Amino acid sequence: MRKVIAALAALVLLAPLVGLVSVGLLMNPATVSCAAPAGGFQVGEVPEELTATTRNGETITLGRAELTHAATIIETGSGIEGVGRDGILIALMAALTESRMRMLANTSAYPESGDYPNEGNGSDNDSLGLFQMRPQAGWGTVAELMDPDYQAAAFYGGPGGPNEGSPRGLLDIPGWEQMGKGEAAQAVEVSAYPERYDNYEPVAEQILTTLTSTGAGGPVTADPVPVLAAGPVVESSRVVFPLPEGTWVATSPFGPRTHPITGEEESFHTGADFSAPDGTPILAAADGTVTVSEFSGGYGGLVVIEHQIDGGKVATAYAHSWEDGIHVQAGDQVRAGQHIADVGSSGMSTGPHLHFEVRQGGTDGEYIDPAKWLNDHDAADLPEADVPPAGSEDCDTGAGASGDPVPVEGDPDELVDDPTSCTDPDRC
Ligand SMILES: [Zn+2]
Hints:
Layout (H helix, E strand, L loop, with lengths): L1 H13 L4 H8 L22 E5 L5 E5 H15 L5 H16 L42 H4 L2 H9 L24 H9 L4 H5 L2 H12 L7 E2 L27 E4 L2 E3 L9 E3 L2 E4 L5 E3 L4 E9 L3 E10 L2 E10 L11 E2 L4 E4 L10 E8 L5 E3 L1 H7 L44 E2 L6
Parallel strand pairs: 1-3
Antiparallel strand pairs: 1-2, 4-7, 5-6, 6-16, 7-14, 8-13, 9-10, 9-12, 10-11, 11-14, 14-15
Helix pairs in contact: 1-2, 3-4, 3-6, 4-7, 4-9
């Protein structure tokens, strides 16, 4: 299979515009069957699709392209001494978590990455490919990282790996065999959320079993749960806190307050504020679809994500990022815990912090207490606001100004409170 992929890569380099078509035509089951080294796993026929359920109960379906990448990860791991079944599962869990097993280009960071075969465009920093490896972090060049074989080899690392232990692959992590699988994946990925990886362990197990059992072929559905129709809103069952653990302090809760900048007494704070250092990663609170990604007005940088949770629509909003600290675009599908933006202090803000809103019903829905929502979904243990919901769906934020962010005087060390408020007492 490596030869096939190498040939593909060469073909695509010569003719980038036909790359995606070539992948579709060439990746038929017959071409991806090949022998594994003695003692390793032998990958059989790659099925059209595979449906599996995560630990959190989310059903996901992987297609031929994703399963072909999984086969690459299994075969690469099989050929490296010391990886074993656990190491392969860890690699599958990491790729499922980081990219849903897709080779993701990143054309905003590296326009040329779009010239290589890919299953989508990511936008997290300068991350590329299956394992979301960053050229700037030393993982490899764009050309190397857009090659699934290279990414798999870099993830496993070890003496034969391409990076010679820096950055560290799995085999370069001392004691990885004794760690939990999610913890080991996290040690390689240097991510804030080990439990994100553990969520995909049942899926990784099913992929490994399916691809390495003889006679596999055709659609495989090991779970009786019906496949959810692919739609613009992804059903999400998991909620995470929007900032990494240990980086934040709650500074201003949801509800009525005296406006910290205008001094107006009957203003209503539409979200909850969490002070955090400039540049701290902001994480998507749940799986969903980005509906707003803009830089203007009182919010400054603003990302809004719509989620389907508990059968209903809800949106979360993340404000005050700097313009270059917004890493997603409207229409992007994001996962719980995905790095979507960085903490900043743009718009009506006096110091670096995240202004976090929850809107019941969707992007233009009603503001509800984010602390209570996070608590109710086991993502936080915060004091809850002792007030009824804001109740106005037209409640604007800030001074209503749009366009350039409004500069605000204030000592960032003293006043990290957030003036993103509804300022019209008749409407809030
Ligand atoms: Zn705020």
